[in-house]
Design brief:
Chain A: Keywords: Cell membrane, Membrane, Transmembrane, Transmembrane helix. The complex is a heterodimer of chains A (431) and B (448). Chain A is mostly helical. Chain A is 67% helix and 3% strand. Chain A has two domains: 99 residues, no CATH class; 250 residues, ABC transporter involved in vitamin B12 uptake, BtuC (Orthogonal Bundle), CATH 1.10.3470. Chain A is built from 17 helices and five strands. In chain A, helix 1 packs across helix 12, helix 2 packs parallel to helix 4 and helix 15 packs parallel to helix 17. The longest helix of chain A has 27 residues. Classes of the chains: A mainly alpha (431), B mainly alpha (448). Chains A and B meet through helix 8, helix 15 and helix 17 of A and helix 9, helix 10, helix 15 and helix 17 of B.
Chain lengths: 431, 448
């Protein structure tokens, strides 16, 4: 095998020799617009009183007192910080440089903190930071696994709109098998198999029969919703005791670590499916970028003809990728029934597969970034829950809308250009 | 055989026969020559039939039929495995298998007869008017499916996949509904027209966002439309949950007030049927889309961009403008679907589920209709019938209506993969030649 040829065709670094840098004002403009909206909100709806942030839980090593800070004051300080960062971005763009990532990150964090201070101002209840972050981790589990499923499939050249159906199939199967065997582990494995089967159907139609990948994905979503709802009403509902009340994974607190304030309850008092998450993210990243398997997979997704020329079996590689992707997605689906609540409900994934898809794009088809985007979207969803506890003035619908709006901004070019694998959506025919 | 290429087509058996004829001297044996001439005419005639038959069984229609058959079979299987009578009878299958088969027949037959009676013609009705009621219900259900299906189809012809039917319908329903119950004092046709236009515009604008983002930033329209679906859903939920915006006064439910009479689409066949003038609007939309796609310059540019954007750009077509404009048209059509829902079908006030999954069904309708307006009309009526029959089946036989989703999605999956259907039914693949058996006989005759 001639390694240089493969490298040249696959690592996706053709932009290295010619660096064409165009000055794009997209980032500063977007930052300015967001800041203006934020300031407008603060001006139009000022809130009295202070915000209370609780950082500790009773089991921690040491207790941190509840922080009480003035709501509006903090909000305006954060706005000032964000404005300063906006200036940095404008200057960088004027010099023909890209806005550094830390600028956008700190900017986002500042506005988020200011927003929290504003929203929690005047509330008698403490805003539990642990609840906010811990819930975010839990809610992001299906998003992270789903986005990883998307990354593996799309890196090999197949669009996976069917993440939603993989999650749903996984949730259904995990509930049934978990109930029959009384073992959440069996449920988890069954979910992976079921979702891999969905992946197999996707593979058969897109790879062998070369049907438009988006169409197959959309149709598979409808098909799985139909199948699971049908069997749910006819089979699961009459037999809830035997078929739809599974044992769940217990929380596995890690000794000592779980008692660190904030971090402990958030990261080290979770279930095995959550602990597996970083492991799987790392494995997928390592597999894709550090192994022969990943190199071949990406070759097939970027330039199948070149991959074929050097002897890589394009179709088989794609099949295998979609099966693995399905299994990973199934782990996310199992979360719904063997971790979150112990039974299946009609259409219980409620669009999480599409948020996972968004996370994958937001994460630029990179497993680590996609997982981080999944966490971010989980956070946005949980923010809504926490704020409704504190009695936030923001209608919950707008908070729920947030991940989708963020994704719209992302695909429109706020967070750099998302470049999909070159051969995405193109079926391969050997000549 | 190759010596007579100019006189005969590539059809090998024709050539063979011709070669045989050339061997015979007509002057020496006029009878034989005549017989051969007749034989040849007869064979050409049969060839034509055989060709036509071959074209039918290898063409799109056979595949569509095969796909529908397979999907219905799968649906039957689902009914069989969940039917209690079948389960009981299969418990003693080996002692009395006939019981199982009888139960299977009863379950499947009952289901599909309920489906048919709920979708087309109710045999149990006393009067003819009652008997055709299901058919009118089918057409009522088909109305938004046809309109939204056209919206997906026209975008598809321009190479864009409009997954945003749900969002476009919700926004158009919100706009039309708001004009419907929010504006008062307008007389009947004016109020209706205003609500119609508002709804269609809202749908067009919502889809236009996706078109604009695609044209300006290259954002993939599938992702953008999916995201816009959720944004529209939460936006409408917010409107519905907020008193003073769209929530019915004095109510705590997220539901709008009813649509006033002056903004309603009048019934098409009298008050006793649900069918309303929206169906006529959908038919007009079919004609308009047909005209746009096949007779207008705009439609030509859509199709050109859909076939090959680069070539279209070279030919002087403004691809960005075409992208935005086709999304506007698509959104307007999907908007029509939303409008017919709130001004015709659901006039008692609506919630955030007013789209009723039509936005996604529209994708399957467009695919089944092969993205051509007439096809969309047929597919819309078929799926409207499934919907009407599905509810009847749920009521009569206790079979969940979700089975319709399964059957529909399987139909589309199979139709999208013709080679699979052809392989299952052993239909010939297109481009293959029908097998000829007659020429052998003809040759033997000559030899004798």
């Amino acid at each position: 095998m001639t390694a240089p040829t493969v490298d040249g065709a696959t690592t996706g670094a053709p932009d290295a020799p010619r660096t064409v840098s165009t000055i794009s004002w997209k980032t500063p403009i977007a930052l300015a617009v967001v800041l203006a909206l934020y300031a407008l909100l603060m001006l139009l709806a000022p809130r009295e009183g202070s915000a209370r942030f609780a950082l500790s839980t009773p089991t921690d090593f040491f207790q941190i007192p509840v922080y009480v800070i003035p709501g509006m004051g903090t909000a305006w300080v954060c706005a000032a910080v964000a404005a300063a960062l906006l200036v940095v971005s404008v200057l960088a763009t004027r010099d023909g440089r890209r806005t550094p990532l830390w600028v956008t990150s700190v900017y986002a964090a500042a506005l988020l903190f200011g927003f929290l201070a504003w929203a929690a101002a005047g509330s008698p209840r403490d805003l539990s930071v642990v609840g906010l972050l811990g819930g975010a981790v839990a809610l992001s589990v299906p998003l992270v696994y789903g986005s990883l499923s998307g990354v593996i499939g799309e890196r090999s050249g197949t669009i996976n709109i069917a993440i939603e159906s993989q999650l749903l199939a996984g949730a259904f199967t995990a509930a049934v098998v978990g109930s029959l065997t009384n073992s959440p582990w069996a449920g988890l494995v069954a979910a992976m198999i079921a979702a891999a089967l969905v992946g197999l159907v996707l593979a058969v139609f897109t790879i062998t029969y070369r049907v438009n990948q988006i169409i197959v994905g959309v149709v598979l979503n409808v098909l799985v919703i139909g199948l699971t709802s049908f069997f749910y009403s006819l089979v699961l509902v009459p037999n809830t005791q035997t078929l739809n009340s599974t044992t769940r994974f217990e929380r596995l607190p890690i000794p000592f670590l779980e008692r660190i304030p904030v971090i402990g309850p958030v990261l080290f008092d979770q279930t095995i499916v959550v602990y597996l998450m970083p492991v799987v993210v790392f494995l997928v990243w390592y597999g894709l970028f550090r192994t022969r398997w990943g190199l071949r997979l990406r070759a097939v997704g970027e330039h199948p003809r070149a991959a074929d020329t050097v002897g890589i079996e394009v179709l088989r590689t794609r099949y295998r990728a979609l099966l693995i992707a399905g299994a990973v997605g199934g782990m996310g689906g199992a979360f719904y029934t063997v971790v979150s609540i112990n039974q299946f409900n009609r259409e219980m994934t409620a669009g999480a597969g599409f948020i996972a898809l968004a996370a994958m794009i937001f994460g630029k088809w990179n497993p680590i970034r996609a997982a981080l985007a999944g966490l971010l979207f989980g956070f946005a969803t949980n923010l809504q829950n926490v704020l409704s506890v504190v009695g936030s003035p923001v209608p919950s619908q707008f908070m729920l809308m947030l991940p989708y709006i963020v994704t719209l901004f992302a695909v429109a070019g706020l967070v750099g250009r998302s470049r999909p694998p070159a051969a995405l959506a193109r079926p391969y025919t050997k000549e | 055989m190759s010596e007579t290429p100019d006189r005969h087509s590539a059809d090998s058996s024709d050539n063979r026969l011709a070669a045989d004829m050339e061997k015979v001297d007509p002057a020496a044996d006029p009878g034989l020559a005549e017989a051969l001439e007749q034989e040849r005419a007869r064979e050409a005639d049969e060839d034509r039939w055989q060709d036509a038959f071959h074209r039918i069984i290898s063409g799109g229609w056979a595949v569509s039929l095969g796909a529908i058959l397979l999907a219905v079979l799968a649906g039957s299987l689902m009914i069989i495995v969940t039917d209690e009578a079948v389960q009981q009878a299969s418990g003693y299958f080996f002692s009395r298998p006939s019981d199982t088969f009888a139960a299977v027949g009863e379950a499947v037959g009952g289901a599909y007869s309920a489906l048919f009676q709920g979708a087309v013609y109710n045999f149990q009705a006393e009067t003819f008017a009652g008997a055709i009621r299901p058919l009118t219900q089918t057409l009522t259900n088909a109305t938004p499916l046809i309109a939204a299906g056209l919206g997906v189809a026209i975008a598809f012809r321009a190479g864009l996949l409009n997954i945003g039917g749900q969002g476009q319908m919700l926004m158009s329903a919100a706009a039309a509904g708001w004009v419907g119950f929010g504006v008062t004092g307008l007389p009947f046709p004016l109020h209706l027209i205003l609500a119609l236009v508002a709804g269609i515009l809202a749908g067009a604008l919502w889809a236009g966002i996706a078109g604009l983002l695609k044209a300006r930033t290259g954002a993939h329209e599938v992702i953008v439309t999916i995201m816009l679906n959720y944004v529209a859903f939460y936006l409408l939920s917010y409107f519905l949950a907020t008193p003073g915006l769209m929530q019915a006064p004095g109510s705590a439910n997220p539901k709008t007030p009813p649509t006033p009479e002056s903004a309603q689409l009048p019934p098409l066949l009298g008050e006793r049927y649900n069918l309303h003038w929206g169906f006529i609007l959908a038919l007009i939309a079919v004609a308009v889309v047909w005209w746009i796609l096949n007779r207008s310059a705009v439609g030509f540019s859509y199709r050109a961009v859909g076939q090959n954007p680069r070539a279209a750009r070279v030919a002087g077509i403004d691809v960005s403008r075409s992208t935005v404009s086709v999304m506007l048209v698509a959104g307007a059509l999907v908007g029509l679907a939303g409008v017919t829902q709130v001004l015709g079908t659901v006039t008692t006030g609506f919630g955030a589920d007013i789209d009723a999954g039509i936005g996604f069904d529209a994708i399957t309708v467009a695919l089944l209709g092969n993205s051509n307006p007439i096809g969309v009309l047929g597919a819309g009526i078929l799926f409207g019938g499934f919907k009407a029959g599905g509810s009847a089946m749920q009521a009569a036989e206790g079979i969940p209506i979700e089975i319709v989703l399964v059957v529909q999605s399987l139909i589309v999956l199979f139709i999208a993969a013709p080679p699979l259907v052809r392989a299952i039914f052993r239909l010939p693949q297109p481009g293959s030649k029908p097998k000829k058996k007659r020429s052998q006989a003809a040759r033997k005759e000559v030899a004798a």
